[in-house]
Specification:
It is a single chain. With about 120 residues, the protein is mainly β. The protein has one helix and seven strands. The N and C termini lie far apart (about 35 Å).
């Protein structure tokens, strides 16, 4: 079974948190609202990988002011691919508390939608 280290930003701005809606036909959380993030690349440190993932998935206009390690967890997920194949992956999630200076989000094709959500309102 393949293993992946995943960096996930919990991004906050003015009391609201950024959630992204995953596509219904692929990924490890199909159709669900979740945090953005992705796997570390070979030779990349954790902070570099986190900031790269934010840029790639949420756009260069989103300014992150602060990054603080928050928590971690792991599980085995079934990843679905657009061609219908699946794969079991052991995933280690490193979750970071991130403060954004703005809400300038431009999602890439890894998501269907995004929302800034106040705690208790989702």
């Amino acid at each position: 079974m393949r293993q992946r280290i995943i960096v996930c930003p919990l991004i906050e701005n003015e009391g609201a948190y950024l959630l992204c809606k995953m596509p219904g036909d692929r990924g490890v959380f199909p159709g669900q609202w979740a945090l953005s993030g992705g796997g570390l690349e070979p030779g990349e440190n954790i902070t570099e990988g986190l900031l790269r993932e934010i840029r790639e998935e949420l756009g260069a206009g989103l300014v992150i002011e602060a990054v603080q390690p928050w928590t971690f967890r792991d599980d085995v997920r079934t990843k679905s691919y657009p061609d219908g194949t699946t794969e079991q992956v052991y995933m280690i999630y490193l979750i970071f508390d991130c403060k954004a200076a703005n809400r300038n989000v431009a999602i890439n094709d890894e998501f269907e939608d995004f929302a800034w959500v106040l705690p208790g309102h989702f």
